[in-house]
């Protein structure tokens, strides 16, 4: 099989069997989620990459939100959270802080989806990654 | 000469001698192609950076598409392609996978251009970079 | 205190005490400035990260523009500037070149703000970072 389908050359693409515009809001959201899974890979968060793929397939979103909220609770007990902007200096923390902003971008783009649980997942994911950055910074 | 022209301070900019809005779709596409050449530089793909500059100048796009399709054919013969999401683990492969998603973003933005060959070039480029990532992963 | 407020789950968010749409242009600009401060952190430009936070708080923008213009003047005297595309090869320079394109993206998004000084600051910032890249490349 070939990776090149030539199907998208006319400016349209497929999403769940429907023709959608390549420059439209649905593919912008899908593409940003793809960018998000890629940057999660840059910081070694492979399980979350897989979660993004599953969320794009609308699979088990509520369970994934619950898992993230549990992780957030654990980290919040472990870390001292202050209500101010943090300038991270640790190298891994600076990378995680960047990944957090890509999560936020994916969240803004995902407002186009009817399923609001995707938004909630991404919102918790940015909190979780912020806490991971704080943990690295300590 | 100075790099600071102060021409763009009023929210307008120039594109091929025409005044265009800095917040508009043409400069969004041009800026994303600029971001693309920059991330190609992060993974050492200097020849492709130069191709992006030439494409922004509308130069030799058909030749560049043919070159990419030849490279894609070669890599497809060399590699085993599977029809599933790949979670890359090799460090260079994870970077290439990210660069691929920036190509995709540039492709979505470039739907604004009249010349559809730019879209075709970017579509083949994302296939090519995906195959480069697979090759590094092996 | 908890980082998770659950306030944004309905697709709205707060900006200077006003309710704004999470998928709208104001939060897109704010989020892109956040992404910019994060990538400034990836290349160790901590003072500029802090400047971005202060600019988001509309603090001392004119002073910051003047500081950047002074730095630009100094670098322009020190470096030989040529009127052509540069393909950077030095690793730090390639990163700075990428950061420059994120500044440009933040500039395009910031056309939504009433305060045009934000645009001027970002315009000078992209010039400054370009010169930093040239300096690393030498």
Cα radius of gyration of chain A in angstroms: 17 Å
Q: Please give the order of strands in the largest beta sheet of chain A.
A: 1-2
The percent of residues in helical segments of chain A reads 55-70%
Described by the principal axes of the CA atoms, the overall outline of chain A is elongated
The number of helices of chain A is 5
Task: Give the total of beta strands of chain A.
Answer: 2
Low-confidence runs of at least 5 consecutive residues of chain A: none
Strand content of chain A: 5-15%
Question: Which oligomeric state applies?
Answer: homotrimer
Find the structural class of chain A using helix and strand composition. mainly alpha
Output the helix-strand order of chain A.
EEHHHHH
Give the termini distance of chain A in whole angstroms: 48 Å
Question: Which chains make the largest contact?
Answer: A-B, 26 and 31 residues
Give the biggest sheet of chain A: 2 strands, antiparallel
Mean pLDDT of chain A: 93
Describe the structure.
- The structure is a homotrimer of 138-residue chains.
- Chain A has 138 residues and is mainly alpha-helical.
- Helices cover 63% and strands 6% of the residues of chain A.
- Chain A has a two-stranded antiparallel ribbon with strand order 1-2.
- In chain A, strand 1 and strand 2 form a beta hairpin.
- In chain A, helix 3 packs parallel to helix 5 and helix 4 packs antiparallel against helix 5.
- The longest helix of chain A has 21 residues.
- Chains A and B meet through helix 1 and helix 2 of A and helix 3, helix 4 and helix 5 of B.
């Amino acid at each position: 099989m070939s990776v090149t389908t030539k199907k998208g050359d006319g400016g349209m693409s497929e999403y769940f069997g429907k023709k959608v515009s390549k420059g439209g809001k649905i593919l912008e959201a899908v593409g940003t989620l793809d960018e998000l899974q890629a940057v999660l890979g840059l910081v070694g968060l492979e399980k979350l990459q897989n979660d993004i793929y599953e969320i794009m397939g609308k699979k088990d979103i509520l369970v994934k939100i619950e898992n993230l909220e549990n992780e957030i609770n654990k980290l919040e007990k472990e870390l001292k959270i202050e209500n101010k902007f943090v300038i991270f200096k640790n190298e891994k923390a600076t990378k995680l802080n960047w990944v957090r902003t890509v999560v936020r971008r994916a969240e803004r783009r995902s407002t186009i989806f009817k399923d609001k649980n995707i938004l909630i997942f991404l919102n918790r994911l940015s909190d979780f990654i912020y806490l991971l950055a704080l943990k690295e910074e300590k």
